Every structure is written in structure tokens, then in C-alpha cells.
């Protein structure tokens, strides 16, 4: 009896006490660390990163949602970065092949003695 009075309050049942304990245990894990006073949060490096399509900073761009769930990047300019030349095959998405597919392509070129890169 004395143990119950010392350990529990009379404002709930065992179920609510369990979740109160879980909250107290997890709150320090999910709270953000206190920041020094007077300092603003650091600027995001993502906003200053150049766009892979036009080269302008990403904060100048907009994103549009299509009804099908696709997100479209809208560049602020019609300028585009020059595409680099790719030697070798492309994958099924039209991008330069990499990994095992590129290794197999090179092995095939060596086996046929071809110097041609498609």
C-alpha cells in the first residue's frame, strides 16, 4: 500500500502510466539539442547547390506536382549545361551504363577486338 502511494499518482490507470513512462524515456531522444543563444541556424547547403540541368542555384527553382504523382523541376532560365560525351552503352533509362553492365560491355569489346564505343 505504501509502495503504491509513493510510486503512483491517483490520476490514471496502469495503461496511462505506461505511456507516461515511455514519453519521459523517449523525449530526450527526439528533442533537438539546445542551440547557443544569439546564433541563427546555419544556412542550408542544398539551396546553394547548383542545378544539374542549368547550373543556377537551386533556390531559384520551382517544383510542380503533376496529378500522376510526378514532380517536375522548373528552371528559371532556358540555358542548359552542355551534355558530356559518353563512351559506351546506355542503360534501359537512357543513362550511361555503370556497374556490371559496363563491365560486361568492356569484356565483350575486348573479346571481339573492337575499338568502337557505342
TrEMBL record:
Species of origin: Agromyces sp. G08B096
Name this protein carries in UniProt: Uncharacterized protein
Residue ranges, compositional bias (Basic and acidic residues): 100-118
Region (Disordered): 27-51, 85-118
Amino acid at each position: 500500500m505504501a509502495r503504491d502511494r509513493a510510486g503512483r499518482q491517483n490520476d490514471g490507470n496502469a495503461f496511462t502510466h505506461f505511456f507516461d513512462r515511455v514519453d519521459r524515456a523517449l523525449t530526450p531522444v527526439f528533442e533537438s539539442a539546445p542551440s547557443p543563444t544569439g546564433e541563427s541556424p546555419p544556412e542550408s547547403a542544398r539551396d546553394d547547390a547548383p542545378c544539374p540541368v542549368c547550373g543556377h542555384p537551386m533556390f531559384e527553382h520551382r517544383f510542380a506536382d503533376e496529378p500522376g504523382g510526378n514532380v517536375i523541376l522548373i528552371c528559371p532560365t532556358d540555358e542548359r549545361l552542355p551534355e558530356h560525351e559518353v563512351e559506351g552503352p546506355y542503360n534501359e533509362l537512357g543513362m550511361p551504363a555503370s556497374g556490371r553492365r559496363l563491365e560486361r560491355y568492356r569484356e565483350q569489346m575486348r573479346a571481339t577486338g573492337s575499338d568502337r564505343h557505342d
